[in-house]
């Protein structure tokens, strides 16, 4: 393969990388603070796409308002889920929240499928990008859809903002403190419970945002999250469970690697990330950016 | 009571006993049809519940026309999840526990191959409608398996020839990496090359199922073939075509060659996304008055227009049931005899014959071009018929078949 084609695939890989980064970012935030392995993350990503689609069908809302509204709605759903279901499992074995969130995934997928079939008579629907972002742009070395460029740009911005908020602001300090030592944080008069709910809502909102962004690229369909979530978990593990920087960097890196892999040798494309995971875990069991368990 | 009335009464009674006698030769007193299909996955819309409904309609129509069998045909639908192991297990379960006499539909080639192998061991007739691999009538052919509606040779032969002859003589092909895709890729390459076309590079196997095809579209962009051939089906095809449009390949002079197209794919993305694409189909609902009439009936019962897979399930179920009526028994060997060499013509299968040597059901097929929304005259009017390929020319000739039955 020539270098130009390689360069094109590296560039193209950033698009999928953007989705991996946004999703694993949410997972990392949630795991870091709540110690919840949120298996429902893929379903909530799908819900973001579906809410955007449904808002368009019901109220004629276009892409831009949905880009704001759908993540808010999904975030709100996340808050309700955390308050009513997940919060009851804190302190129990992790397998309980795994089972719960996995069950929620199945439930959400089937519910959305039923709604789509009964309301719109389809189980897979196209979603068009906004007028301003449709079409392609000639970058010199490749002709690329404008919308995909937008996805890369927006997700980089969102990742930077999230990193900034958590590492550099007072809000972030509280979140980090609640993660490190909830007892002491509570002693300072901070309502850890509320912060936990908020963080879960934001993390889930990020998944919803990724879903809205994905809708114009892939069709809106009930199972769109189930393939993605497995790769995303691998990304989180490679990056280091709970590491924000790790999930973002690894997200983009895996996207690029998979794109180059699928151009060089297609059959390996889907396996590549797991090979990488195995290698990383052999050398650094806590992930590339993760701290060893004792250092926490 | 006058004489005529008495005669009529006696005649009816006699006919009734005769009918009852006929029906009694059925194993366990009933004909059980098992629709082995995808009820939840990527092919559930083009087959799925619609296939079950079509088989039920065939059963009802058959019982109405053949009073002796009234109340004796049952239909059950089972989900094989497009997985070979599940399909094999479900086929065995349906045959052993529910006493199913015939299996029908079977989307996904790998699942069809597994289910027909089980059916062969248990001597149960299998009519594959939606599975496409030519292995079913070649190296994997057997006495109890019949291949209805279409196969990869017919798709490739129809589309590869039509597209190449219209100027699309250089191709880059991607295919889903399982039995169906591998087979269709081989057949399509052969058809293109036979008509003087060439491959610009080796075909690429993609994961199945898959959502992101951008790598391959970018590869096509730099290779600049005249035709980007996609052997994907169902949701995967929808994603390919969506991204083909997104990357603006048509404007860059790269046409689209579609291996297998269903009406539901076009509906999912809108006609304009597919407009101008050429495909080969065994049937479409508004082909003529006879097709329309059945399609309307189906739409009334199911709420949606039929796909050709669903129409094929009706037709194949009916063909099987009529063979049972001719054989006067549902014993598989007798029904196989009644099916072999049988010639017929219904709303779906035109000019049809069941080839005795490999159990390929031969029928007329059509090369079609997808209309743009503007050209469409009514809802669901999606195809312009370019040509009809007669049954004798549409399928793999017997001389090339590897079937040893």
Automatic annotation (TrEMBL), chain A:
Q: How does it sit in the membrane?
A: Multi-pass membrane protein
What Pfam families has UniProt attached to this entry?
BPD_transp_2 (PF02653)
Q: Where is the signal peptide?
A: none
**Which protein family is named in the record?**
Belongs to the binding-protein-dependent transport system permease family. LivHM subfamily.
Instruction: Supply the name of the protein.
Output: Branched-chain amino acid ABC transporter permease
- InterPro entries listed in its UniProt record: ABC_transp_permease (IPR001851), BCAA_transport_permease (IPR052157)
Q: Where is this gene product found?
A: Cell membrane
Q: Which GO terms describe its cellular component?
A: plasma membrane
Biological process terms from the Gene Ontology for this record are:
amino acid transport
Arranged from A to Z, the UniProt key words for this protein are: Amino-acid transport, Cell membrane, Membrane, Transmembrane, Transmembrane helix, Transport
Keyword Transport listed: yes
GO MF, any single term:
transmembrane transporter activity
Write out the transmembrane intervals. Answer: 6-31, 43-61, 67-86, 147-166, 195-218, 230-260, 272-291
- State the superkingdom: Bacteria
UniProtKB/TrEMBL annotation, chain B:
Gene source species: Deinococcus koreensis
Put simply, this protein is called Branched-chain amino acid ABC transporter substrate-binding protein
* PANTHER family membership: LEUCINE-SPECIFIC-BINDING PROTEIN (PTHR30483), PERIPLASMIC BINDING PROTEIN OF ABC TRANSPORTER FOR NATURAL AMINO ACIDS (PTHR30483:SF6)
Would I find Protein biosynthesis among this entry's keywords? no
Q: Which family does it belong to?
A: Belongs to the leucine-binding protein family.
Which ranges carry the Leucine-binding protein domain? 31-373
* Keyword terms of this UniProt record: Signal
Signal sequence interval, chain numbering: 1-23
């Amino acid at each position: 393969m020539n270098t130009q084609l390689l360069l094109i695939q590296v560039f193209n890989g950033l698009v999928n990388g953007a989705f991996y980064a946004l999703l694993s970012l949410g997972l990392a935030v949630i795991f870091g603070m709540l110690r919840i392995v949120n298996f429902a993350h893929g379903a909530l990503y799908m819900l973001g796409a579906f809410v955007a689609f449904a808002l368009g069908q019901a109220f004629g809302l276009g892409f831009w308002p949905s880009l704001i509204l759908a993540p808010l709605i999904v975030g709100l759903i996340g808050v309700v889920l955390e308050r009513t279901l997940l919060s009851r499992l804190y302190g129990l074995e992790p397998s309980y929240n795994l089972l719960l969130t996995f069950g929620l995934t199945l439930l959400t997928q089937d519910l959305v499928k039923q709604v789509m079939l009964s309301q719109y008579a389809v189980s897979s629907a196209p979603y068009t990008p906004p007028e301003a972002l449709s079409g392609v742009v000639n970058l010199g070395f490749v002709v690329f859809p404008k919308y995909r460029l937008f996805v890369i740009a927006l997700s980089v911005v969102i990742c930077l903002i999230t990193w900034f908020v958590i590492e550099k602001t007072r809000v972030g300090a509280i979140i980090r403190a609640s993660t490190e030592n909830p007892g002491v944080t509570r002693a300072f008069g901070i309502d850890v419970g509320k912060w936990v709910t908020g963080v879960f809502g934001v993390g889930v909102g990020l998944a919803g945002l990724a879903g809205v962004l994905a809708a114009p690229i892939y069709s809106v369909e009930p199972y769109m999250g189930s393939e993605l979530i497995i790769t995303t978990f691998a990304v989180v593990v490679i990056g280091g469970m709970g590491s924000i920087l790790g999930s973002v960097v690894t997200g983009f890196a895996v996207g690029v690697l998979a794109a180059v892999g699928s151009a060089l040798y297609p059959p390996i494309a889907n396996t590549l990330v797991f090979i990488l995971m195995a290698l990383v875990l052999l050398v650094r069991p806590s992930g590339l950016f993760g701290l060893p368990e004792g250092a926490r | 009571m006058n004489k005529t009335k008495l005669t009529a009464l006696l005649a009816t009674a006699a006919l009734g006993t005769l009918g009852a006698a006929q029906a009694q030769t059925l194993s366990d007193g009933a004909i059980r049809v098992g629709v082995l299909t995808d009820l939840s996955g990527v092919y559930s819309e083009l087959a799925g519940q619609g296939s079950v409904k079509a088989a039920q309609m065939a059963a009802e129509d058959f019982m109405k026309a053949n009073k002796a069998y009234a109340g004796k045909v049952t239909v059950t639908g089972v989900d094989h999840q497009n997985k070979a192991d599940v399909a094999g297990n479900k086929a065995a379960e349906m045959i052993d526990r529910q006493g199913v006499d015939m299996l029908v539909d079977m989307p996904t080639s790998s699942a069809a191959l597994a289910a027909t192998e089980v059916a062969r061991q248990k001597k149960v007739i299998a009519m594959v409608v939606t599975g496409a691999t030519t292995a079913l009538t070649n190296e994997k052919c057997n006495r109890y398996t019949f291949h209805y509606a279409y196969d990869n040779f017919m798709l490739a032969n129809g589309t590869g020839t039509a597209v190449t002859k219209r100027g699309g003589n250089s191709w880059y092909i991607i295919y889903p990496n399982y039995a169906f895709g591998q087979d269709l890729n081989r057949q399509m390459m052969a058809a293109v090359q036979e008509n003087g076309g060439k491959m610009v590079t080796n075909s690429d196997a993609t994961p199945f199922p898959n959502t992101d095809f951008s790598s391959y579209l970018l590869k096509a962009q730099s290779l600049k073939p005249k035709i980007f051939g996609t052997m994907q089906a169902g949701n995967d095809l929808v994603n390919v075509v969506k991204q083909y449009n997104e990357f603006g390949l048509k404007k860059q002079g790269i046409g689209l060659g579609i291996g297998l197209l269903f009406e539901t794919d076009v509906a999912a993305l809108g006609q304009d996304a597919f407009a101008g694409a050429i495909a080969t189909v065994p049937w479409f609902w508004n082909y003529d008055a006879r097709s329309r009439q059945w399609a309307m009936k189906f739409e009334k019962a199911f709420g949606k227009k039929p796909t050709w897979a669903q129409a094929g399930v009706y037709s194949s179920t009916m063909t099987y049931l009529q063979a049972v009526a001719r054989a006067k028994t549902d014993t598989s060997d007798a029904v196989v005899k009644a099916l072999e060499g049988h010639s017929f013509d219904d709303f779906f299968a035109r000019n049809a014959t069941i080839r005795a040597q490999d159990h390929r059901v031969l029928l007329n097929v059509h090369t079609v071009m997808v209309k743009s929304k503007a050209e469409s005259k009514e809802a669901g009017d999606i195809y312009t018929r370019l040509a009809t390929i007669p049954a004798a020319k549409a399928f793999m000739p017997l001389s090339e078949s590897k079937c040893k039955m």
